[in-house]
Amino acid sequence: MNLMMAHWITMHSLFSLNWDEWASIVAILTAVILIIRWTLNKAHEQLFDPIYHAINQFKTSVDKLNDRLGNSEDRLEKGDKLFIRHDEELKDHERRITNLEGRK
User: Fold this and answer.
1) What's the predicted TM-score (pTM) here?
2) Are 15 and 8 in contact (CB under 8 A)?
3) What is the pLDDT of residue 36?
4) Is the confidence at residue 93, as pLDDT, over 50?
5) Which is more confidently placed, 56 or 89?
6) What is the pLDDT of residues 65-88, one digit of tens each?
7) What is the distance between the terminal CA atoms of the chain, rounded to a whole angstrom?
8) Interior CA angle at 11 toward 10 and 17, to 5°?
9) H/E/C letters for each residue in the chain?
10) How far apart are CA 46 and CA 55, in angstroms?
11) Cα 39 from Cα 31, distance rounded (Å)
């Protein structure tokens, strides 16, 4: 049993592969991982950054539009209140004029 256990790992091999073979495997895996990582970074920069930028511009535009809409609604409400007040003043003036004309 000890002889079988000692067979798969020796001073110069691991899983029946020499250390130089393991170094080649590690070098190839490292190169593949670096290439995949570089490709993903390039894809992120070239594909997704413009999309993120466009989405941020759209969000900014929508936020500005909402602010303008809120300001317009506030102005409309203030104008509506002012219109109602002027309408009441006009009716009051008309009543006074009618009263003055009725006295003649």
Assistant:
1) 0.45
2) yes
3) 97
4) yes
5) 56
6) 999 998 888 888 888 888 888 888
7) 133
8) 60
9) CHHHHHHHECCCEECCEEHHHHHHHHHHHHHHHHHHHHHHHHHHHHHHHHHHHHHHHHHHHHHHHHHHHHHHHHHHHHHHHHHHHHHHHHHHHHHHHHHHHHHC
10) 15
11) 12
d(CA 1, CA 32): 39
The tens digit of pLDDT for each residue in 23-43 reads: 899 999 999 999 999 999 998
Give every CB contact of residue 52 below 8 A, 6+ residues apart in sequence. none
Please check whether residue 19 is in contact with residue 12, taking contact to mean a CB–CB distance below 8 angstroms: yes
Q: pLDDT-based confidence at 10, cuts 50/70/90? A: low
| Maximum distance among all Cα pairs of the chain, rounded to whole angstroms | 135
Dihedral angle over CA of 28, 33, 37, 40, nearest 10: 100
